[in-house]
From TrEMBL:
Database matches in InterPro entries: Metallo-B-lactamas (IPR001279), RibonucZ/Hydroxyglut_hydro (IPR036866)
SUPFAM superfamilies assigned: Metallo-hydrolase/oxidoreductase (SSF56281)
GO molecular function, one term: hydrolase activity
The protein's name: Metallo-beta-lactamase superfamily protein
Domain Metallo-beta-lactamase residues, every copy: 37-228
Pfam family, one: Lactamase_B_2
Length: 258
């Protein structure tokens, strides 16, 4: 088996996904499959390992589509529902494998413990409830998944902090509005950078396209991919044509070898 990482974009949409329920926006009626975006999530596979970053409401469909039969763990960027609401659907993995390792900041763990109390319960557990093995992480400490080291990177998503992850020459950052120079320094030297770009108009908690491109320019990766995309950004094909040569819009089920 190869040592290269296979990256699969499981979802590249913003919180409501595309199409938005009931929307008359032309992008929501597009027939281009690249304009259909599930909630944002990423699969990292190498050797026999499969890890996902975030576990949103489309997790079940994403695992079926990408045919992941063994899941080694879930890394969480933050607690918002579009990144966490699918946690119950780890059940098939739990039944086969036992407690599923999750990697998350203490604040995110506290939020999930309130919202999925039955998953975290120590006593009187509901038969059939899944269980997790909690690994607390923070921006100052590397951690290991499988046989590789992960460097967390902290950014701000309006009032809350989010974590991005760097694995060797690959960095994934989503739901970023601002990032300190110190944290951006940790991203430098990365060859493949994934970063969020919501739309052209400014937004209170997400990079718009201009801010995402400015960040990419600062980091200078070989290739960058934009994710967490709103229908308001426009048709995939038209936006893709306007981007700098080394920058692409990600789309659902796009795979990269990094
Ligand atoms: Zn989000």
């Amino acid at each position: 088996m190869s040592d290269a990482f296979k990256i699969t974009f499981l979802g590249t949409g913003t919180s409501q996904g595309i199409p938005v329920i009931g929307s008359n926006h032309p992008v929501c009626h597009s027939t281009d499959p690249k304009d259909k975006r599930l909630r944002v999530s990423l699969l990292i596979s190498w050797k026999d390992y499969n890890y996902v970053i975030d576990c949103g409401p489309d997790f079940r469909q994403q695992m079926l589509t990408s045919q992941v039969s063994k899941l080694d763990g879930v890394l969480f960027t933050h607690e918002h529902s579009d990144h966490t609401a699918g946690l119950d659907d780890i059940r098939p993995y739990f039944f086969r494998q036992g407690d599923i390792p999750i990697y998350l900041h203490k604040r995110v763990a506290d939020s999930l413990k309130r919202r999925f109390d039955y998953i975290f319960a120590d006593e009187n557990r509901y038969p059939g409830a899944p269980a997790v093995a909690v690994n607390l992480i923070d921006k100052d400490h590397r951690f290991t998944i499988g046989d590789v080291s992960v460097m967390p990177i902290e950014a701000s998503h309006n009032r809350i902090k989010v974590l991005g992850f760097r694995i060797k020459h690959f960095t994934y950052l989503t739901d970023v509005k601002t990032i300190s120079d110190e944290e951006a320094e940790k991203v430098k030297g990365t060859k493949f950078l994934v970063v969020n770009a919501l739309r052209e108009e400014p937004h209170h908690s997400h990079f718009n396209l201009e801010e995402a491109l400015a960040f990419i320019d600062k980091i200078q990766p070989e290739k960058a991919y934009l994710t967490h995309i709103s229908h308001m950004l426009g048709f995939h094909e038209e936006v893709e044509k306007k981007l700098p040569k080394n920058v692409h819009l990600a789309y659902d089920n796009l795979t990269l070898t990094v």
